[in-house]
């Protein structure tokens, strides 16, 4: 009976004819009231796993998501298919609009929230007044201190669950090792959670690594490749400036190609416009940072190139997972030149405060305490400590955890501070070592002489599917033999329902590498 109801709702509300692998089983467990941990590959339609139950639920479903732009995109897409009882709450909202949403909260079925806004007393207070059926944690690997995108605000979600009278939980990720999965379960205190762990390998993607001497050779390689293959292409960079530079170079050498750059420093409206143009086949090539592709489910991306390699294999898997979602042959090409390790090392060094700098940071905070225990605005703290906002959020969380900050006031007890500082420094050292280990893993993979596919997935699963087209550059693949599906040559006119379906399978999130 429930199975038939789910299938009917899938067609009538979401205009989708059948479930993708894993979706129905996960939804069934949620409908039965179970907690669920779901690890699904990029592009597998994770969003539907909570959106469909939410559409049938009497109470509220809360979705905790790290990226505001993606929340807003999902809200728009749901409203476009007639799912009106949905809204997003974030810290950038107009105060009047925020009050309106909070007042009408019991009229919604689905609310998207950032983890930061869930720490606000007025938000939690209002949520406690209504029935929350399900708390969805998207990008759940952010909970784990050993996950590749650890975010302190995610660690507070265990406390949030208790305050909301322990609703059912759905934790979602595309890239979580067994170690990270255990960390997620422990942090949420849900030992009986039902696990749905699906292989993340994509058998239609061919993996290639090409070693060159310098930037010029990278650009020449890309230019030659794109002259030969005019297919939807993403080129990933770890530098915002470089996205613009290379987009200009390619535009000069490939005047008939439609090329744009995309990064987090751009105006929001410009970013949305580029996303839509790419989705609607008005752009061929996007030179982008890792932010692009999140929330974009373009089925026919044939090439994903890496001008710079990311900080860890998990990010690489998410980015290459945007290729070939229609099952057709697609290729990932990573370009490497000597010295490429310097950029990710610099990014890692700037992510958290350095343990060597910790003593000076805490001396400055102690001087601040002597003047006024109440912490000043975030901007003033950043100026005083000379740290980034991400570094301060990490430090603030650690100090709260150790009782050094309470109610945004510094709390000083000499013996406790000394012990806490030692422990925080130890964690900084452990976190830096983890980041270095992750960097070493992807660097080792780049230089692997055996099968790239096998060694890419070995940290996540025991086996991998046989490739449907070609395996990798170490197993004999050559671009000379590749004939991709020529999606550009034959334009297809889609119905509005098909366009909605193309938009609807929301992709996976990843943080932008600065």
TrEMBL record:
Keywords: ATP-binding, Helicase, Hydrolase, Nucleotide-binding. Signal peptide: none annotated. Residues 27-194 form the Helicase ATP-binding domain. It comes from the Bacteria. GO terms for cellular component: bacterial nucleoid; cytoplasm; replisome. It holds the Pfam family Helicase_C. PROSITE patterns: HELICASE_ATP_BIND_1, HELICASE_CTER. The keyword ATP-binding applies. GO terms for molecular function: 3'-5' DNA helicase activity; ATP binding; four-way junction helicase activity; hydrolase activity; nucleic acid binding. GO terms for biological process: DNA recombination; DNA repair. Residues 221-369 form the Helicase C-terminal domain. This is ATP-dependent DNA helicase RecQ. It comes from Lentibacillus salicampi. The lineage of its organism: Bacteria, Bacillati, Bacillota, Bacilli, Bacillales.
